[in-house]
Amino acid sequence: MENKLFDSELKVMDVLWREGDSTAKHISTVLKEEVGWNMNTTYTLIKRCIKKGAIERSEPHFMCHARIPKEEVQKAETDELINKVYDGSADKLFAALLGRKKLSPQQIENLRDIVGELE
Questions:
Q1: Calpha distance 43→13 (Å, rounded)
Q2: 89-104, pLDDT tens digit by residue?
Q3: Can you state the angle between helices 90-100 and 70-85, rounded to 10 degrees?
Q4: Rounded distance, CA 104 to CA 102, Å?
């Protein structure tokens, strides 16, 4: 993918990631309900995603297919956050997340499992 996706474009992608291949009309209907966008706004965003290589369009019915997995975008966004805000230090980000709120015993156990998998 050539260009970073903006938050509005990620909303379009999120519909495809949740629901699988969908028509532009369906994406527009979902986003009208979820964020109140009109059809023209959604179609413009879909076309921008196509131009950036994130969505592939096919006929009939302006069918849209996500060309990039959600995990790839999550990784890129996380890497950018770590580099931009935490001096490239993932452990600083991790410490900030842990310090934000009280974690439940289950959440702490989940984090231990994740760290254990990395070791």
A1: 12
A2: 888 888 888 887 778 8
A3: 90
A4: 7
